[in-house]
Design goal:
Elements (H helix, E strand, L loop, with lengths): L3 E4 L5 H12 L3 E6 L2 H11 L4 E5 L5 H9 L10 E4 L15 H28 L3 E5 L12 H20 L6 E7 L2 E2 L2 H5 L4 H8 L5 E2 H12 L9 E4 L15
Parallel strand pairs: 1-2, 1-4, 2-3, 4-5, 5-6, 6-9, 7-8
The protein binds NADPH dihydro-nicotinamide-adenine-dinucleotide phosphate and 2-hydroxyethylsulfonic acid (8X3).
Length: 249
């Protein structure tokens, strides 16, 4: 039986790579994002019977509802929700960070994620489906400038574990993937469009790729129904941990 996945943030990075991987593996995919011109090529590549583009801002609940109501019949029964849409904005210390940036991250990474999850839970329970939430190592290990972004991702990881508890006995699987550094548009967005900063971060660092993460998402989704990966933390070999810092008088 063909399964259907709804993948948010499919216009770029992990989400776009995941659409390719799932469509190639025979899934039906609902690909979402704001940039319609990035979604149409996915439909063109695999056909409208394999990929459906749903254009909406995840923070706009009415638009989200309208997109779900407009799903073609073949895409209406969702087996897997991949909550991937998200962003970091800013790297400044908390005391000089932009409150607008913080609110954008919370609205996108937290509020929109729980809204879509809440909306789809009844059918995921009915279908014994699965949820894969994209968190980050930034939600596990603090680093300077990670402040609100790390906070949103800590929420995603803990919310996922809470879902596991509440969904006990339903057969619904919930996984958090917590990636470290991967080269996507992530840093371009985080720096409000500074391509040079993005290039500097990734050059020579052998970061993970979007395909690396897409492969893990597909692996998790294809595991036997009696197995649940609770959390999967993954980094490039080139990235590890720094120590505690001490401020002296
Ligand atoms: P990209 O910037 O390449 O992709 C982000 C995606 O999220 C885009 O498709 C974008 O679509 C979508 N998105 C952002 N805001 C909204 C919105 N308001 N409404 C709808 N869609 C939105 O980054 P990544 O692929 O790297 O990021 C994907 C996820 O992975 C994020 O949650 C990120 O926090 C997480 N992550 C990334 C890591 C990395 O190093 N790259 C590491 C760990 C986690 P559009 O702008 O078209 O709407
Ligand atoms: C982003 C991962 O390592 O850039 O979620 O903080 S990292």
């Amino acid at each position: 039986m063909t399964r259907t996945a709804l993948i948010t943030g499919a216009t770029s990075g992990f989400g776009a790579a995941t659409v390719h991987r799932f469509a190639q593996a025979g899934w039906r995919v609902i690909a979402t994002g704001r940039r319609a011109e990035r979604l149409q090529p996915l439909v063109d590549a695999y056909g409208a019977e394999r990929v459906h583009a749903a254009v909406f801002d995840v923070r706009d609940t009415a638009a989200m509802e309208a997109a779900l109501a407009a799903l073609p019949a073949d895409f209406a029964a969702i087996d897997l929700l991949v909550n991937n849409a998200g962003l970091a904005q800013g790297t400044a210390p908390a005391q000089s960070a932009s409150l607008d940036d913080w609110r954008t991250m919370i609205d996108t990474n937290v509020t929109a994620l729980v809204t879509l999850t809440h909306r789809l839970l009844p059918q995921l329970v009915a279908r014994k489906g699965a949820i894969i939430n994209i968190s980050s190592v930034a939600g596990v290990y603090p680093y300077p400038g990670g402040n609100a972004y790390g906070g949103t991702k800590a929420f995603v990881s803990q919310f996922s574990l809470g879902l596991r508890s509440d969904l006990h006995g339903t057969g619904v699987r919930v996984t958090t993937i917590e990636p470290g550094m991967a080269e996507t548009e992530f840093t371009l967005v985080r720096t409000h469009g500074n391509q040079a900063a993005s290039d500097t971060l990734y050059t020579g660092a052998n970061p993970m790729t979007a395909d690396d993460i897409a492969e893990q998402i597909l692996w998790v989704a294809n595991l036997p129904a009696h197995l649940n990966i609770n959390r999967l933390e993954v980094m490039p070999v080139s990235q590890s941990f720094a120590g505690f810092q001490v401020a002296r008088d």
